[in-house]
Structure formats: structure tokens, C-alpha cells
Amino acid sequence: MRMYIHECKSLSIGYRPAQSSISHTMPRILAVQSHVIRGHVGNKSATWPLQLLGCDVDPLNTVQVSNHSGYPLIKGHRFNAQHFADLFDALKSNGHDADYDLILSGYMGLPEGVPTVAEGIRDILTRNAGKTLYLVDPVLGDNGKLYLPAEMIDMYKQHFLPMAFAMTPNQFEAELLSGVTIDSVESACEAADKLAQFNTQGKAPLVVITTLDTSDVASDSTLSLLVRAPAGQAYTVSYPRLHAHFTGTGDLFTALLAGTIAALGLHLAADGALVGKDEKVVDIVTAVARIVWAMQQVLACTDAYATSVIRPEDDRAAVLRKRELQLIHPTSREALIKMLTVVEDELESAKVVVKKVRS
């Protein structure tokens, strides 16, 4: 452990007690996604970071399993439609769902539960119109491989995308949902446009394609993502590529975006601009760049820890266990707390670069 702390240099930031940095009325978020006992994916990747950002989180777990599916053995339970119906009914009957600022959803588990979960979310959004926003991470797969049955693609199109204020697919998921092959920034913009068109609320959503590994913006040393603002402008955010495999990064990114939206009170103005609590336009692409900055700190710390403890004789389970996101380490914790206030010089120092690609 001493080696781990030595490898992960602490950030030089001033940490203030929670009572001086959290407002009296904290944003409340309903997080609908998976739960693992060991590791940091799904709600285990989301709850702690959201709490650090000053959000009160209500986790609604779609599955309860031992660990993520990359391990040699996974056991647990995927909840059915009746389970979700009971939970949403109790939330409604007790008035627990009247003060949500944001709902986020991720890994769904069984396809049979999707319509019930979607109806529960839709009911909350309808009763809290103008207050509660919905952010969907359409978890389907990655790197050309589906995690879930192919029928889930149409289920996301039918049930979740139409009511989303924001979407965070990775490149593979964006291709599956839009029908567009992404091989350039231009085609990524086309895919994002098609995803935005699924919204049936009369307002185009924020679309972030969280991985963009195309030859015009990525290389052996660089990765990118694409941000499509509700008004149609598009930006790339590029950052250093870490040559290592991590699990739960998409869940963490979505959680940090949810925390940013809730903390800033983001909503759409009549002209389609993203504005905050004070009705002033918010620089959403810089907000996303700050998320990337924070994630780079977490991943660098995770990689340093894994490098220091993985041994040649380790089996697959041991390696995966040592590569779990190190969210609780002081370096990661301080980076997450600082995220909303990172300045341009710090982004530049971390080689996080924003480029406008469409006006």
C-alpha cells in the first residue's frame, strides 16, 4: 500500500469541509443501473463520485451480482419487471420521487424489465415536468461486442431515447442506435444528429459520444470524444490515451456528467441554449473537458496501483481485481471534488484539448 500511495501523487488543492461547499438543498438523483459487490461499475462507480459532488443519490439497482462480467465467474440476480413495478409504486406512494432533479439510467439487465423501468421513469418526468431531467447511458456493448441481447437496441430507441435530456453512448453504441458507421468526426456528428432526433419532447438533447477512436482525431497516443450541444454545435475533446484496460469508465463518465448537470442546474432555454440556475449560458464543452480531466486523474492512479501490485503469477481474476477503478484513493477523491472548478491552464497541462468541429 505504501508503494501505491507513492505512485499516486496527491493533488495540491485546498479541501474544504463539506458543510462549506454543499448548498442547503442538495440536488437529488435517482440512479437506475447495475450493482456489484466487488469493484466499481454501475452504481458502485456512480454513487460515491456523485456524493462527492454534493448530490444526494438514490440507487435503484437493476441487477445485484458478485462482480462485473469480465471475471471467470459471476453470480447474482437480474431483477424482473414486477420487482421494478413494486419499487416505482412505493416511491410514488410515499412521495419519494417528487424531488428528483435528475434521473440517470445505465445497464438494464433483463430485457423484460425495460418497459416497466421506462414507464416508471416516464411517470416521474411527467409528474415533475420542468424539474426532473433524464440522462441515459445506453449500455449495450463496446469494441464491437454486445453485452446484452440485440433486442435491447430497439428497446432503447423505443423506450429511453425519446425522453432523454442527455445521452452518453460510446462509439459502438452510437453506431448501433443511429445506424451510422463512425469512421470520422463528420460521421460521428451525423450519428449524434440522428440520436438527437429520437427525442420526442420537442427539444434536442445533449449528446456525448464518449469514445471517438477515428484516424482523424485519435492516434496511438490520443483518444477523443464528441460533444453535440442541443443547438447543434459539435466539439471534440482530445486527451492522452492510456494503454490499459479499465472497467466502469463509461459509468463513471455518465455519473460525473449527471453531477455536473445537477450541480449547475442545467436546463434548456427557449432558444435551445444550455443555461444554468442563473439563466446564463453554460459552456458545456468545458464542463465535459473537466470531466475528462478528473477521469484521467482516476485512471492514472488506477494504472499506477495496478502496475505496482500485479504479479506474473496472477490469474485472470487477480489481475482484474487489481485493475478495478481506484475511486476511494485520496488522489481520485480530491480530483473528483475539484472537477467543477478546474481552470484552463490545468486542462492544458493535462493535454485535454477542445476543438470546435461544427458551428
From TrEMBL:
Annotated Pfam families: Phos_pyr_kin (PF08543)
GO biological process: pyridoxal 5'-phosphate salvage
Gene3D superfamilies xref list: 3.40.1190.20
Family recorded in the similarity comment: Belongs to the pyridoxine kinase family.
Pyridoxamine kinase/Phosphomethylpyrimidine kinase domain location: 120-262
EC number: 2.7.1.35
GO molecular function, one term: ATP binding
Keyword Repeat: no
Protein name: pyridoxal kinase
Keywords, in A-Z order: ATP-binding, Kinase, Nucleotide-binding, Transferase
